[in-house]
Structures are given as structure tokens and as C-alpha cells.
User: Fold this.
Amino acid sequence: MIRRLLLAAVALLAAVSLAAGLWLSRLFSEPGAVAVPSLAGALGAKRVLGVFAHPDDEQLVTGLFVRAKTHDAAFTALVTATEGDAGEQAPVIARQRDLGSVRKAELLKNGFALGIDEQEVWEYPDGSVPDVPLEELVARLEQALRSYRPDLVVTFWPASGATGHADHMRVGLATEAAVKRVRSAPAPDYAGPHWLAFALTPRKALARLGGESGRVVVEHSPDPTHRMPGEISAKRRGWKIHASQEDYVRQAYGVPAWLLYLLWDEEVYRVVDLDEGLSRP
Assistant:
């Protein structure tokens, strides 16, 4: 009898765990988006530029960068607007006054591990990117676009910044404006990118687990158009390379990175086809 009860209890626990896992997994899915093995490959892009705000922001698009290189032999470049000097260390591994230099080095190392061909790390003040004149940001990004000549540009959705961070939103807005400027004044050797992709975060998970800030992000986020594998092993490796932020996932979400990525194993994007004249909603 006791053995039967124990077996029944184990079976019940397994069933409950499976149901909970499936429920959580659905929170991180966006089934309405088209599943592709590689965003760059699906679009036919051979040159990809990412524009983000902080070291470790590229963790949001690891799959895009890795597969653009390994699946599609694309040229890849990354512009990061700040050195992340105002961030909190998790764990503390350096003097706080040295954090910008440390995080820049972590970013460059992770970019190399992802196969990114070229990286620029600008020195705008972390946390104060919205205070930088928009024209200055747009002009520098226009120069980067004309230098790297991407087919595909990936950045933050300007209204939500994936997490609600003001730096993210400002970078997304400036990138969008720079893309429009380049396309409105094409050069003989470069007429501008064909696609603009916005990296998004899972809306159902944010709405259920992200508190009030998560709900605000969801309210200001669009429907994704594409989803692709997130290259989870590379994401986990990336958090080890970003040693000053290695515990960020656990501190921010209450779970270790390996568990989060068991559930959040895809990246989702809103892609705008600029050649078809489609503007974002």
C-alpha cells in the first residue's frame, strides 16, 4: 500500500511539473510569428548591423548573429552606444570606477565569440542616452550605416526598448531615423538597408511575470513577424563572458540563466520591409 501511495504521489508530482512546464513554456512563445531557421537567411541579408545601448544587450539577439554567420556566411557588425559604466555588478568583480572599461572588454570578447566581424563601442553616458541630442546620434549612426552598408539592421523597438529602458528606446528611435535618412539620400554604392528588424521580448511572459513595468512594455510592443532559435548555449556562454553581469538573469528574474533559457529558447522580431514601403505601426 505504501509503495502504491508513493508511486501515485510521484506520478502526480510529475504530472503537475509537466503541466507547469508546458504553461510556462507557452508564456515564452509567440506562435503567431513565422518560424525561420535564421532571420538573415530568411530575408536574404548578407550584411547585418546591430545597434544597441549597453554591453550585454547583444544577448537578446545571439541567435540572429550566430546564425547569420554560421548559416548564411553574412558580414556582421555591432554598434553599442555606451560602455555600461553605470550598471550594477552581479557579482562585483572590479572597482566600480573601472566598470566601463571592464564591460567594454566583456562586450568585445563576447562579440568575438559570436563571430561578429566589426564592433564599435561608443562612450555616451550610461543611463543618459536620452540626454544626447537626437541629431548627434542620428548623424553618427548614419555614418555607421554608410560604412558597414548593411542589408539588415536590428535594434530596439523605440516605444518599449524590449525592457522599458530609456537608453534602449532612444537608440531604437535614433536608428530608425538614421535608416530613413540614408534611404532618402542614397549614395552610388549604397542605397540603404532593405530590412529593419526590432528585437522583442515575449509578451505573455512579461505580462504575467514582469510586474507593472512588464505590462507597460507589452502595451507598447507590436506583434512579432518572425521567430528563430536563440542559440541558447551561446547565450549561456555570453553571460559567463559578461562576468560582471553573470548573475544578472537570476537577480532580475529570480531564476538561473540555464532555467530561463529552457523556457525562452527563441528570439522574436518585428521585421519591416523597407523596399515595400511598409512603415511600423
Notes: Residues 1-30 form one domain. The beta strands are 34-35, 47-52, 75-82, 118-124, 152-156, 195-200, 226-229, 266-273. Confidence is low (pLDDT under 50) at residues 11-21. The CA atoms of residues 156 and 172 lie 5 Å apart.
